[in-house]
Write a structure and sequence with these properties.
Blueprint: H1 40-45, E1 59-61, H2 63-77, E2 80-85, H3 95-105, E3 119-122, H4 132-141, E4 150-153, H5 157-160, H6 172-178, H7 187-190, E5 206-210, E6 213-217, H8 237-256, E7 260-264, E8 272-273, E9 275-276, H9 279-292, E10 298-301, E11 307-312, E12 322-327, E13 342-344, E14 347-353, E15 356-363, E16 367-375, E17 384-389
Parallel strand pairs: 1-5, 2-3, 3-4, 6-7, 7-10, 10-12
Antiparallel strand pairs: 2-15, 5-6, 8-9, 11-12, 11-14, 13-14, 15-16, 16-17
Helix pairs in contact: 8-9
């Protein structure tokens, strides 16, 4: 009886460089694709993680965060303020994160509650590294132990990453701490006597409806870059949700008048330092906006650990230039950023800063004002300010 011989193993392709996308000729333009590798963005899209769907309604009303009395105070003050920054957490304590948290805390005045920030909008990468469930104690609850405001968040790529044994479920710790069924003091905080009440977000993407402003929070998945709104296996649910939600905002404007519209997402559409921008993600957002005929009045992002401001003019949108801001300066570390370079395509790179700081966003019936404050603060004026007429 003849013995069947095993087939020889296929010979591995040994490449000149460790990174298969390091080539003079882009992979998609090669006459022969010897590596049989798609363009990098397509390759990343194949590695995306799942995006959990919201629980129930994906809309939060501000009253669910600050209560009816808080909403009444804001309405009577005729403006709303909130903080925003991303990229905060770091193991084993973090001086810059503490400094930013203390500076934001100092913006509160117990005798002027109507003009206090309504909440803190975290722009993602709350926790870095393994054992995220446990790290929430020292990377989140301890730094914001005395911060008075509630905290809502969009997840960053590090919030969605997984590690065998310690973090097997994508976004598991984020969902536990930001998306409980009802507002609670999570056990990881209560165990060390930190009585911070969580916000019961419906999921990792949501619409927050408040006086003078509506905020759409999005999840741009697990890649270091570029960001994507679609999920594993080409899941388009979040993109379809974005279109539906923009239609909801458009219908509300026709009925009740315009409020400022802000989109918050971790990966930045534009960036000139720390991390590159995400043109594919921007195209996904643009496609949804164009299909409905409504565009944001500002877009806030993190990921790059610095501050950058771009002003974008969208053809056919009939709007003044719109700020696209990077504020990934909440304390994790700081990274170098290029000096402003002026107009490139449809956007103008006008301001940048290496270091730590945060945003104060103010919305009224007439204007949307966004300030960037460096930490430690240099005087009583913001490093940057942009005012968007509504």
């Amino acid at each position: 009886m003849a013995v069947k011989r095993a087939k020889p193993a296929a010979k591995a392709v040994v490449t000149r460089y460790a990174h298969p996308f390091f080539r003079q000729t882009p992979v998609t333009m090669s006459a022969r694709n010897r590596l049989k590798a798609p363009h990098m963005a397509n390759w990343i899209a194949q590695k995306l993680g799942p995006i959990p769907k919201p629980k129930g309604a994906s809309v939060m009303d501000l009253s669910q965060i600050v209560g009816d009395a808080g909403v009444t105070e804001i309405t009577q003050a005729k403006q709303i303020l909130f903080h925003s920054v991303g990229d905060t957490g770091r193991p084993n304590g973090n001086g810059p994160q503490e400094q930013v948290a203390q500076a934001m805390t100092a913006d509160y005045n117990i005798n002027d509650t109507a003009n206090n920030p309504a909440f803190f909008l975290h722009l993602g990468d709350v926790i870095y590294g393994q054992n995220k469930d446990n790290l929430y104690r020292d990377e989140f609850y301890r730094p914001y132990m005395t911060y008075p405001g509630k905290i809502v968040a969009v997840p960053g790529n590090h919030d969605g990453e997984t590690f065998a044994g310690t973090d097997p479920t994508p976004l598991g710790a984020f969902l536990t701490n930001f998306c409980p069924p009802t507002p609670i003091v999570p056990k990881v905080a209560a165990d060390v006597r930190i009585m911070r009440q969580s916000v019961a977000q419906p999921g990792v993407y949501w619409l927050l409806s408040a006086p003078f402003v509506q905020i759409i929070g999005l999840y741009s998945n697990i890649a270091e870059g570029p960001g994507h709104l679609d999920g594993a296996a080409n899941d388009q649910t979040q993109i379809q949700w974005l279109k539906t939600t923009l239609k909801t905002v458009s219908d509300d404007r026709k009925k009740n008048g315009k409020r400022a519209l802000i989109i918050a997402v971790h990966h930045p559409p534009y960036s000139n330092g720390g991390h590159s921008g995400s043109p594919d993600m921007l195209s996904q957002i643009d496609g949804a906006c164009k299909s409905v005929g409504i565009w944001p009045d500002a877009l806030l992002s993190g990921h790059a650990h610095n501050y950058q401001r771009y002003m974008r003019t969208v053809a056919g949108a009939g709007k003044a230039p719109v700020p696209y801001l990077v504020a990934g300066s909440g304390g994790h570390n700081d990274s170098a950023v290029a000096a402003p370079t002026g107009v490139s395509g449809d956007h103008d790179f006008v301001k940048s800063n290496k270091g730590f700081g945060y945003l104060i966003v103010k919305a009224s019936a007439a204007t949307l004002t966004i300030q960037y404050w460096v930490v430690p603060k240099a005087g009583n004026k913001p490093f940057d300010e942009v005012v968007v007429p509504l």
